C-alpha cells in the first residue's frame, strides 16, 4: 500500500525548508524530496542571509546555524575600467545582539536548515528526482512520481519549491519556462584567505562583515551587477547579467568574472587567495510581472520557482523563506478548518502574500526590469561620466572649480543631451517609485 | 564607452575552474542532449560562448557538440534553446551531477 502524506515538499532550499519545517512543527506528516546528494548540494547563492525571515520560523537560529559574519558595512560601487565611485555605509549599531544580516555559505546553511526540518519530524529523502506530478481524474494534483522504483507517493498537497529551473511545474503546465530577459546568469568563485588577511583588508573585527555590490561598465553594457561578500575565511566573488544580454553579446561568463577580478579596485582584495569552487546559477529577476499562478487544486508554488526575487535590493532567500512559511500556514489553516486543498481554499496563500512585504516590494519595482533592460546607458554611459566627473574634481591642475563644473556639465550634455538626461532621471525615478 | 582600451588578458581556461568542483558523473547518461543537425543555428552556436561551464563546442563541419560532464545545471542553455527544440534538457538522475561544497 502506498504511503500517504499530509504534504509533499519538492526541493530543500530555503523556501522548501521553510515550508517543510513549518508544516512538520504543526504536527503534519511531511515528505520532502531533494534531488541532490544532500540538501544544499544543488543550491547556489551569493550569499546574504536576512535574519528577520528566518527568525519568524526559527527564533533561536543564531544559537547553532552556520553563520559566517554579520554585516556592519555596505559598499556600493559604480565602476568604470579604471576605478570606481562609491558610497559606504558603516555603523557600529549593526554590532547588535541580534544582527540583521549575515553572510553565509549556502551548502552549509541548507544542511543545517534541513537538520531542523528533520528534527521537527519531516521525512527528508535525498538523491531522488521528482519526475512528474500525479493527477487525479479531475486534474487535481494528488502526489508525485519519482525516479525511484515504485516511487509514486500521494499527499493532500504538493508544494513546489523546485527553484528557478523547476522542470516539474513547467512540464505540468502550471507555469512557463522563464524568459531570457527575466533571468540573470550569475557566476561565482569562493576565494579562500586567512581570517586575519580578510579582516585587515576589509577593516573588520572578528565576525564583522562587509558587502560590496558593484555596477557599471564592468558588465560591458549588459544589465547586471558584481559582488564581493566577506565570509569568515573566504570571499564570495561573483558577477551576473541577464541571460538575454549574454545571448546577444556572446560574452563568456568566466571571462567577465576574470576581468572583474583583475580590476584595480578588486584585485588587491582577493590577491593570493586560493579558489576552491566555481559555481553558476540563474536568478529569477523578472519581478512582479513574471510571477506565475501560485496555487491550484492540490498545489502551491514557493521561492525562486515563483520568481520571488527583489533584484533591486538583492533580496531572495528572505522572500523564499517567507513564501514557504506562508504556504505552509495556509495548508495548516485548511487542515484545522477541515477544508480540502483546492484552489479556492489555497487562494489564502496569495492573499497573505499580497499583504506581506513580499508582494508589496515586488509590486513597487514592477517596472524596473524593463527600464534597465531597455536603457543600457545606466550600465555604460553613466558610470563613465560619473567617474570622469569625480576625477576632474579631485585632480588639482590649475583649472578653476567653476571651469571644472562647466566641463562636467558639458560632458553629460554632450553624451546624453538635456532631453536624454531628464528622460533618464524620470525613467529611473518612476521605476524606483 | 571607455576611453582606455581594455588591456589584453590571457584566455581563461574554464576546465581549470571546473577542476575545483565536485561531480558525480552518470556515465553514459548525458542529461542534456542536442538534437541531430547538419548546421548549427546561430542560437545553438551562442551556447559555445555563453555556457559558463564550456560544455558546448563547435565542430569543424559547422555543428555544435556537448559534453555535459562539467555542467553546473544552471539552465542557461535551457532558457536559450529548449523552446526551439534544439536541445533536450533534463536534470541528472537523483544524486548525480554537480555537488556544490559551498554553493
Task: Explain this structure.
The complex is a heterodimer of chains A (about 425) and B (about 100). Chain A is built from 14 helices and 17 strands. Chain A is α/β, with parallel strands linked by helices and about 425 residues long. Chain A folds into three domains: about 200 residues, 3-Layer(bba) Sandwich (FAD/NAD(P)-binding domain); about 100 residues, 2-Layer Sandwich (D-Amino Acid Oxidase, Chain A, domain 2), CATH 3.30.9; about 60 residues. In chain A, strands 3, 4, 5, 6, 11, 12, 13, 14 and 15 form a nine-stranded mixed sheet that branches. In chain A, strands 1, 2, 7, 8, 9, 10, 16 and 17 form an eight-stranded mixed sheet that branches. Chain A is globular, with a radius of gyration of 23 Å. By secondary structure, chain B is of the alpha+beta class. In chain B, strand 3 and strand 4 form a beta hairpin. The mean pLDDT of chain B is about 90.
